[in-house]
Structure formats: structure tokens, C-alpha cells
């Protein structure tokens, strides 16, 4: 087999020089984990629609659960390091990066941002270690892009709260120990920590799926779930509570999708160097080189955008519309790279022996969750015009 050039990720613009030694070490450590623990198994997991829950403690030891949080027991790494980790995880599979995002950027972030000191002490160290799993219940069957129309309710009954309603597309819910559930109350939308063994809580994996198969998304029913008063997240009032968590997850997506794109590109590159047609390597044809060039340039530009947003986030200067720019463009670019990579592979690209079509299928989910293309387009449009087009 023809060897690839020395730089395994095809660092076309010498972007490594923009990273610190510590950032490169974090990236390399996560990449090595994915190579050892994910790549040998992910095609089978995808085919079997299986997410290996036993990976969660391993991910905890790797230090990627709640990676960017600075609470006691959390890794406390930089936004750029978290982004690099997300990229390497998604190079394995979007389902893996999604699990880390649901745990850290959504559930743990909600507790960190909005929880009491007691709630933080109870859950964050266990979740950072992967000994406890969390989920984030915002989306409903009839309230996806418009969470303000949620119908799940929480009503007071003496000193307790009683929750009723339904949630849909809730990652990790059937594996979780605790659910962060958002519900409408007399005081507006509030967040609650719901132990998943509570009577009236039920989570059912959504099957069958054509995307994110090595991952778990669920329908959740809340039927008279009774919670003590201290189950409420005291710092979250209104939709700004969940939106703050969604922005953390969206930031991770800006980086993560580039991992799927890079893995697809490298698969196509390796294939083109070894596959011979008409007595020459496929890589020797002009049309193939154009495809490879377009893919490599698109990935490099996406990495520059992600790194710029990461530096802004670490400086405390990142704004929501900037995250929308990154999520919108990097996701749609990544899908196109994956699809183009599949064309280089020809018919063999539709098998699970190769990654591009698996990645492309996964990314159809990624472009939908945490804000669709349309939602992020309107966020950016509002920033440009000063006019909200949502209603």
C-alpha cells in the first residue's frame, strides 16, 4: 500500500503551528483513543445500531466528559482543547461525539450553569468520570425548532413538583441515570433534575434509524413524575436556560463535523493511491485530484473558522450568532466532503468497509439537531438586518 505523506491529517495550511504544545498533546491523546477503542468496532456498532455504554467510564478517564467545565471534579480544559477532542471523536463516529456532547455540553453544562452547589456536588464529579450518565430533555414531538411551544408541564403539589409530558430525540435517555428536563411552569420555563428511576419516567429508544445508528436517541414519557422542591435548577429561568447549554453543544459541532469530513477525505485519499484503473492509480487522474483538492481546502478553511471561534470562546468574547455561522457552514461543508469522498470510492463506498457514507448519513442528523440550517440562517440574518424572521 502506498504510504500517505508524513502528516496523517494532511495539514495543508500548516495549522499545527497555530496550536500550543498542550493543545496538540490533547488532540493526539484523543486520536489515539479513537484509533484503539473505536475504529476497530464502529462499523459493527453502526450496523447493529448499538452504542457501547461501557465506553462512558473510558471517556471519563480520557477526560472528555464535561471537558470544558471548571467545577470540582471536571477536567477544566480550554475551549480549543475541547474542540480538538470533538473533532477527533467525530472522526470515529458522530454518535460518539454526540454522546460526549449530550453528557458534557448539555446535561453537565446545565447543572454547572444553573444548578445549586448541592446539585453540582452530587452529579458533576460522577458524570465527569462516566460513572453516571445524563441526558437533556428539551425537544418534544411537536416542538423541535420552536421550543417555546413545549407542552410538558411542572406543577406544584405541596412542596413537590409533578411533571407531565413527552420529549423526543433525547440522546442517551435510556442509558441515563439523571435527566435534565425542561418544563413549563407558572413561573415560565424551568429546568429539573429527574432521576431516571423515578416512577412515571420512561425512555424508549427510537428505532429503526437511517442515521446515528451507533448512538441512542429516545422518546421520553413523563407521567406524573413527582420530584422534591430541590430538584429544580435554581439558576435557570425561561428559555435562556436551555439555550445557554445548546450554544455549548453547537460550539462542539463546529469542530466535530470536521472530524467526519477529515476521516472521509483520508479514506478517499488512501483508496485513490492504491486503486488502479486504466493502468494508473486513481489519484493520478485530474478529476480525482480536483476532488481531493476541493475536500482538503474545505476542511482546512473549516478548521480555521473553528479555531478562530475557539480562541474567541477562550477569551470570553464568542457571541451566539458566531456559533451559528460555524455550525451552519462547517456542517454543510462536511456533508459535501463526505459525499464527494464516496464518489472517489465508487461502488465500494456504499459498504461499511469505508466510512464516508456512514459519516454523511450521520451528518444529516447533526445538521438537524442543535438548530437546523434554517434556524441558524435566520439567526445570522437577524444579526445582519436587525429583523427577526422567526415569527
UniProtKB/TrEMBL annotation:
Gene3D superfamilies: Acyl-CoA dehydrogenase/oxidase, N-terminal domain, Butyryl-CoA Dehydrogenase, subunit A, domain 2, Butyryl-CoA Dehydrogenase, subunit A, domain 3. It catalyses: glutaryl-CoA + oxidized [electron-transfer flavoprotein] + 2 H(+) = (2E)-butenoyl-CoA + reduced [electron-transfer flavoprotein] + CO2. The keyword Oxidoreductase applies. Pfam families: Acyl-CoA_dh_1, Acyl-CoA_dh_M, Acyl-CoA_dh_N. Residues 243-384 form the Acyl-CoA dehydrogenase/oxidase C-terminal domain. Its cofactor is FAD. Residues 21-130 form the Acyl-CoA dehydrogenase/oxidase N-terminal domain. Residues 135-225 form the Acyl-CoA oxidase/dehydrogenase middle domain. This is glutaryl-CoA dehydrogenase (ETF). Pathway: Amino-acid metabolism; lysine degradation; Amino-acid metabolism; tryptophan metabolism. It is an enzyme of class 1 (oxidoreductase). Belongs to the acyl-CoA dehydrogenase family. Keywords: FAD, Flavoprotein, Oxidoreductase, Transit peptide.
Amino acid at each position: 500500500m502506498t504510504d500517505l505523506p508524513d502528516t496523517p491529517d494532511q495539514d495543508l495550511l500548516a495549522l499545527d503551528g497555530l496550536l500550543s504544545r498542550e493543545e496538540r498533546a490533547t488532540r493526539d491523546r484523543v486520536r489515539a483513543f479513537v484509533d484503539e477503542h473505536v475504529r476497530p468496532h464502529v462499523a459493527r456498532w453502526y450496523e447493529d445500531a448499538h452504542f457501547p455504554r461501557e465506553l462512558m467510564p473510558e471517556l471519563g478517564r480520557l477526560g472528555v466528559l464535561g471537558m470544558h467545565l471548571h467545577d470540582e471534579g471536571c477536567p477544566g480544559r480550554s475551549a480549543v482543547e475541547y474542540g480538538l477532542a470533538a473533532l477527533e471523536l467525530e472522526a470515529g463516529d458522530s454518535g460518539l461525539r454526540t454522546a460526549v456532547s449530550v453528557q458534557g455540553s448539555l446535561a453537565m453544562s446545565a447543572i454547572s450553569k444553573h444548578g445549586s452547589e448541592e446539585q453540582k456536588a452530587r452529579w458533576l464529579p460522577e458524570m465527569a468520570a462516566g460513572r453516571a450518565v445524563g441526558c437533556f430533555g428539551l425537544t418534544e414531538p411537536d416542538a423541535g425548532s420552536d421550543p417555546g411551544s413545549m407542552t410538558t408541564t411542572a406543577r406544584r403539589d405541596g412542596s413537590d413538583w409533578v411533571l407531565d409530558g413527552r420529549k423526543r430525540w433525547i440522546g442517551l435517555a435510556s442509558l441515563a441515570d439523571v435527566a435534565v428536563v425542561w418544563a413549563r411552569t407558572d413561573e415560565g420555563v424551568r429546568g429539573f433534575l429527574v432521576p431516571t428511576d423515578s416512577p412515571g419516567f420512561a425512555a424508549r429508544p427510537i428505532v429503526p434509524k437511517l442515521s446515528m445508528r451507533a448512538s441512542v436517541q429516545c422518546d421520553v414519557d413523563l407521567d406524573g413524575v413527582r420530584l422534591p422542591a430541590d430538584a429544580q435548577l435554581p439558576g435557570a429561568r425561561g428559555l435562556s436556560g436551555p439555550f445557554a447549554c445548546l450554544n455549548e453543544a453547537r460550539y462542539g459541532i463546529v469542530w466535530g463535523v470536521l472530524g467526519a469530513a477529515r476521516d472521509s477525505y483520508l479514506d478517499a485519499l488512501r483508496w485513490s493511491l492504491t486503486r488502479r484503473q486504466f493502468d494508473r492509480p486513481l489519484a493520478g487522474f485530474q478529476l480525482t485530484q480536483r476532488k481531493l483538492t476541493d475536500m482538503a481546502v474545505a476542511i482546512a478553511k473549516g478548521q480555521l473558522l473553528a479555531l478562530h471561534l475557539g480562541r474567541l470562546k477562550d477569551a470570553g468574547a464568542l457571541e451566539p450568532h458566531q456559533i451559528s455561522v460555524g455550525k451552519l457552514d462547517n456542517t454543510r461543508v462536511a456533508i459535501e466532503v463526505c459525499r464527494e469522498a464516496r464518489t472517489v470510492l465508487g461502488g465500494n463506498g456504499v459498504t461499511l468497509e469505508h466510512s464516508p457514507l456512514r459519516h454523511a448519513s450521520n451528518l444529516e442528523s447533526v445538521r438537524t439537531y442543535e438548530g437546523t440550517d434554517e434556524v441558524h440562517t435566520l439567526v445570522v440574518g437577524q444579526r445582519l438586518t436587525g429583523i427577526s424572521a422567526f415569527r
